Amino acid sequence: MKTEIVNSANIAEFIKYCKEHAAEHDESNIPGADYEPRSDEPAFLLKADNGEVIGAASIMLHKEYVDAGKARFRIFHSSACEIDNYKFLLEEIEKNSGIVEYIYCYITEEKSETRSIWEKLGFSVWRYSWVLERNIGAFNPPVFPEGFEIRTMRDGIDEQAWCDIINEAFANMLGHTHLTPEKMGGWKKEECYIPGGMKMLWDTRANRPVGTIAMIKEKENGEDIIFIEAISLLNAYQGKGLGKNLLRYGLEFAQEYGVNKVLLSVNAENSGAAELYFKEGFTKAEVYLCYHKKTNNT
Q1: Structural domains counted in the chain
Q2: Does 124 lie in the same domain as 146?
Q3: pTM, to two decimals
Q4: pLDDT tens, position by position, 28-49
Q5: CA quadruple 181, 186, 189, 191: dihedral sign
């Protein structure tokens, strides 16, 4: 058994392995077909003696993560769920994790065998998040107060305002990393992107955007579904019923898009948002655990 750094010679093997296995733990950052090796994303393959790929690991050392002292895994997986396999991969990751204090990764609650291995390697649960689901069915339509309206985010104009709203709204949430317009640049290239699916709530009296919501498309059992994300409001606009109507707008968008089901995710500590989603008919579909580990580099 040996590890190989991912490079131009074996990138196809890495992409193939991620496509086949990454979603077993976390489907948030699976490399696409056009993925290329990056200096700020050290990645490794684990191979058996016969050359078969039996594992892969990659961490993101992008500026927003490093500034927060953390690095997030794109993938940390072995098809043979054995502690030595994960140990080999972890050793390579830690040697190449720079000066970040923590590395972290997500996994679904039911993966108890893998979770046990991670815990033996020094990982512990940092926080929880839930994936919630709702069939479209009947819902109350959005009704915004006078002076507020939904507008599509304008490319090349509204990105900084979008980031400012997100960063203010989620500043105190565990796991939030500073969002920048540069990070948003690649979103439109992703398969899940819906043209016109990024919306902003405007206070027309103040002539400024004060909230955000985004809808992206996914597949579940071969059927299209909508994933609602980035529901946020500037602090001064919270507690006024605007978030509830942003959520209802997302349901309306999904209905008009022609899907039958909507998903969203919420941090378990964000009790106010979770309570709203449950009241609006969402139920728990999956529980994700975020595991982190202190590195030996600081």
Answers
A1: 2
A2: no
A3: 0.83
A4: 888 888 899 999 999 999 999 9
A5: negative
